Amino acid sequence: MKRWHYYLVLTLIAGLFVMPQLVTHKLILGADALFHYNRFYETAEQIRTGTFSYFISIFGFQQSGRIVNAIYGPIFSYLQGVLVLIAGSWFKYQVISNFFVYLIAGCSLFKLLSYAKVRESTALWSAIMFMTTYSINYWVLNQGFTSWGTSLMPLCLLPIIDMKNQRFPILKVAVSIAVMTQIHMLTAVMVSLIYLPFFIDYGIRQASWSKTVKDFLKSLVLYAGLSSNVWLSFFLINSGDRLKMPFTNQQMSEKAIDLGGSYWLQYPKFLWLLLVASFLLCIFYWHRLERFTKQVVIISGLFFVLSTSIVPWNWLIAHHVPFVSLVQFPFRFFAPFTVLFFLFTALMFEHLPRKKGVLFLLGTISLISIGQNLQVLIQELQRWDNQSLAAKHVFVRVPEAQARTSFFAADLDLALRSVEKSSPDYLPIYHDNNENKYVSYEKQILAERKDFSKTVKHGRLQVSWTAQKPGTTLVPVIVYQNTRLYAGNQEIQPQALSDIGTPTIKQLAGKNTIQLRYVPPVYVAWLLFGCGIGWLLLFIWIGYRFFRK
Predict the structure, then answer these.
(1) 354 has pLDDT over 70
(2) Taking the CA atoms of the chain, what radius of gyration do you get in angstroms?
(3) C or N terminus of the chain, fewer CB within 10 Å?
(4) What is the spatial distance between Cα 425 and Cα 154, in angstroms, rounded to a whole number?
(5) Closest CA to 107 of 125, 122, 121, 127
(6) What is the pLDDT of residues 316-345, one digit of tens each?
(7) CA–CA dist 290, 297 (Å, integer)
């Protein structure tokens, strides 16, 4: 069987997984859907209209001028925007994006295992099972963005195979972590943590530590150039604004895989059985395993432990241990464990006797997993007609039936106006009060904005309203340190800023119009341009190498 035949099988399976949605013509609207759909609508409209606003949202998020994409997967957000434009409706986008997340996951794990010299039949069955795990279905069932990072993680682990073979791939390491940084920052951190022990082992086995360190520094410089847009945004915004980061989960342990996050172990149903069987086989055949396979087992085990309540997550949060709050949910560590688990399991099976029996078992479990995955998808789709779209901090502005219909409309903004969520992530915090920031956003942006008309003209967000009498008013937009407000060509200063940065300004009797722009320092444009040139040169180089082969 030729190599491309295996990729064709994975493509057909990815297509099979989206068939229930195509047949039923229904959606699965998870907790994170509205947040990400607003992100991608923003980039889609910027591309469609040719009006680019790298930092602030001028189309999505209620045209509030808030910052999201600049510090949350900026380049990948624009790629998703292209996908939204191609799809033409949120239903079609969901089908296409689900297909791609399945396909990328299967193909990337198959590539990793093939690169590690695992037999193609073993790699195929492992890739199919990986496609059915919750690490991938997290996007399909809940629109959790971790799945996009996880689907590409196997490709980003190709460098550890090179380090095993006594090569430090400078370009691969830099590009892999840079790609992850442009998609999902936490996944990029996890990939870096996976690299660390393999890099140390590589350095120990090398004759010269100086060459090892030089190679690492070269890779670091390349990475810095390819991810400079993200780090620049973090520095620029955080140096002048105190941002509302994603909420701190005070009960993190409740979302560990051995407690409230146990569903991560149930996709596919046989995953827990495969975990136990692989663990027992690993112990029994430990003496026969290669050094590299043992390393993968140990590192994957560490990620597994981190995903459980064995780690005192609640205690760490209560004592304000740095960076712990950024994790939010321990089950996120199960995603890199899943990738490493399939890697070490496939490598281990290569050293087992009776390989045909093992291969038959893998094939059987994979086929059952396909059936179970289809069953879960059908069950979730059946909820579409009956479940309420309204939830905590989610507001349905039209009748429920009309709101559902809006997700099939060609007017992408219609659904985002019909169903709104008051996510406060990355809003500026100007002063502390007891008000929940979700509630602040509801009151100051969602509730108030209906009296205001918002359009985009000449690259600026324009807000208009009619006042009965002169005085002051709270304008439903967000002001950061570098945000500028204009009345005509004259800059105006807010009289006050709320806890989340909505400005109070003077108004005249009659029609009032102001414009909003984000004006960063001049050097920012040059650095962003340099980062773009870096990615362009990289794609040219990859294309050259590809066609040369």
Answers:
(1) no
(2) 25
(3) C
(4) 29
(5) 127
(6) 888 888 878 778 899 999 999 999 999 999
(7) 11
